Automatic annotation (TrEMBL):
Residues 46-176 form the ATPase AAA-3 domain. It comes from Polaromonas eurypsychrophila. It holds the Pfam family AAA_3. The keyword ATP-binding applies. This is MoxR-like ATPase. Coiled coil: none annotated.
Length: 336
């Protein structure tokens, strides 16, 4: 691991603090959700967000885009969308007789895919392909999306009529699935005060180049091998629970998590450690993210659903059985 100077560490922490401060001037509460958005950006992952309308999902991402001088676009997914509406298409010019390429709204830094489960499978696949490849091919020409690139897709948990559920293989491409809940009474009071008061102007505190540098710094955060082994054991327990003393869970899980979950747990722990001002990950950085990384990757059996079990309950049982490692001694050497 490449060591950073104290001045570099201080500058990184200050920049992260400024970004969060600016967003919180507009967005009330939702600290956990905002933290997950920042983790996804630093770890170069994507978010699947589930929450009822009106919980500041759009506002959070739009405000964040303004603070980093990035582009923000929002697509409202509907059943009549076609892939070209997302990625772009070739347009024929009658005057010149030439074709020109018109790039779609996926060419942005922060993309909000609102109600992704309202669009048909072809459109979902087109978006998920861009998320994975970070490029689009139109008529044989490859176009790369800008860096940094974050997709935040939302799902409404209430309405299921006229929706197309995301296939498990495609959901796996999201780094985390975050559940956004209602604000507390105190937070809601402040929300109303801010909405009826004068508009808050958000300052740009970072450039997309600085954010790209933060992403590179995140890759240098130290993760102890014992933490990676912990991630492997957790994910393994979702596939073969009986090997980890969880035989009672075997009948509740049809399919466990893929190796992407192990990678995302490790990358997420790095990013969360960096957000918390450290150049090394601790066990709590990983344990805090386990439910968000695993909940959408477990395919539960009908037996689990009939007994009222959800993915979070199963993940909690696994976490209770698979112990997190003690704080590795390596950290003392790194900070000494």
């Amino acid at each position: 691991m490449q060591a950073q100077s104290p001045s570099q560490d201080a500058h990184t922490a200050q920049l992260m603090e400024q970004i969060l401060y600016e967003v919180k001037r507009v967005v009330v509460g939702q600290d956990r959700f905002l933290e997950r958005v920042m983790v996804a950006i630093l770890a170069q992952g994507h978010l699947l967000v589930e929450g009822v309308p009106g919980l500041a999902k759009t506002l959070t991402v739009k405000t964040l885009a303004n603070t980093i001088q990035g582009n923000f676009k929002r697509i409202q997914f509907t059943p009549d969308l076609v892939p070209a509406d997302l990625v772009g298409t070739r347009i024929y010019n009658q005057k010149t007789g030439d074709f020109s390429t018109s790039l779609g709204p996926v060419f942005t830094n922060l993309l909000l895919a609102d109600e992704i489960n309202r669009a048909p499978a072809k459109v979902q696949s087109a978006l998920l392909e861009v998320m994975q490849e970070r490029q689009v091919t139109i008529a044989g020409e490859t176009h790369k999306v800008p860096e940094p690139f974050l997709v935040m897709a939302t799902q409404n948990p209430i309405e299921t009529e006229g929706t197309y559920p995301l296939p498990e293989a495609q959901v796996d491409r999201f780094m985390m699935k975050v559940l956004v809940d209602y604000p507390s009474d105190e937070e809601e009071f402040v929300i109303v005060q801010r909405v009826i008061g004068p508009a808050v102007a958000v300052s740009s505190v970072a450039t997309t180049e600085q954010l790209a540098e933060l992403q590179r710094e995140c890759r240098r955060v130290y993760v102890d091998p014992s933490l990676i082994q912990y991630a492997v054991r957790l994910v393994s327990a979702t596939r073969t629970p009986e090997k980890h003393g969880l035989k009672e869970l075997e009948r509740f899980i049809t399919f466990g998590a893929s190796p992407r979950a192990t990678i995302n747990l490790t990358e997420g722990a790095r990013a969360l450690a960096m957000l918390r001002g450290r150049t090394y990950a601790l066990p709590e950085d990983m344990t805090d993210l386990v439910p968000d990384v695993l909940r959408h990757r477990l395919v539960l059996s009908y037996e689990a659903l009939s007994e009222g079990l959800d993915a979070d309950t199963v993940v909690a049982k696994i976490m209770a059985k698979v112990p997190a490692p003690a704080r590795p001694l390596e950290h003392e050497k790194l900070v000494a």
